[in-house]
Each structure stands twice: as structure tokens, then as C-alpha cells.
Amino acid sequence: MRYFAKPGVAIAFGAFMLCAETCLHAESFLAADGSAFELPLYDWTAGAFLLTTGVLSQRSWTLTRRQYQAVAWAFMLSLLFGALVSFVQEWLTPPNVIEWGLSEGAFVAIIIALVVIALCGLVSTLRAATDE
């Protein structure tokens, strides 16, 4: 479980979320119809925060760097949990066709996996912070 407390995991997960959300909302970038409010600003903020705290956790700080990383993991976990609840509600309604060919059940499974990774990251970072 201590593996998830490593800064490299935070860096990789934050970078993955930034890339995934950017690719998922690529149509919003290309559209000039005023859909700027549909951009994933919260997700980008959480991904950038997690990525930054992972990078900064690799350096020696006088402040408790693990606490910053734990806050970033908690922020990411809260966003993923919100997405999970939203997509489970959609999954329980009549089926919808997703343009990029992934079933709603598979998408819910992917979000569950991301929630588990973020939860492991938070718990292991908090445990590592108490050991310092």
C-alpha cells in the first residue's frame, strides 16, 4: 500500500487525468460556439494540483510535503467520486449510445478503478505522513 504514497504515482496519475480530460473534451476546445463553460476546469485543477504536489514532494521541504500531496489526492478523489455517482445514475437509466464505442458499464468500471487508485493514494499518503 505504501507504493501509492510515492510522488511518482501522484505525478503519473495527475498527468493521466490532465491528458484524459483534455482528450475527452477536445470538441469543446475546437468549437467556437461559446461552450467554454463546459471545459473541465475542476478536473484540470485537480490533475495539475496532484501533478505539482508529486513534483514538489520529491524535494526536501520544511513543510510537511505529504500533507499537500494528501490534499491533492483528496481533491482528485472527491471529483472522481462525483463522476462515479453521476455515471452510475446514467448507467441505471435506459442505454445510451456513446460515440467513441465504449459501453457505459465499461466506463463505470474504469471510473471505479480510478476511484480505488485515488483512495489508495490518499490512504497511503496519510499513513506515510504520520510516519515522518
How many structural domains?
Answer: 1
Distance between the termini: 16 Å
Structure classification: mainly alpha
Q: What is the strand tally?
A: 0
Low-confidence stretches: none
Number of continuous helical runs: 5
Order of helices and strands: HHHHH
Radius of gyration, Cα only, in angstroms? Answer: 16 Å
Percentage beta strand: under 5%
Shape, per Cα inertia axes: globular
Provide the residue-averaged pLDDT: 78
Helicity range: over 70%
Question: Largest sheet, if any?
Answer: none
Overall description:
It is a single chain. This protein is an all-alpha fold. The chain has one domain (2-131). 73% of the residues lie in helices and 0% in strands. The chain has helices at 7-24, 26-30, 41-57, 65-92, 104-131. Helix 1 runs antiparallel to helix 3. The chain is globular and about 50 Å long. The two termini are 16 Å apart. The mean pLDDT is 78.
Summarize the structure.
The chain is mainly alpha-helical. The protein has one domain (2-131).
Topology:
Elements: H1 7-24, H2 26-30, H3 41-57, H4 65-92, H5 104-131
Helix pairs in contact: 1-3, 3-4, 4-5
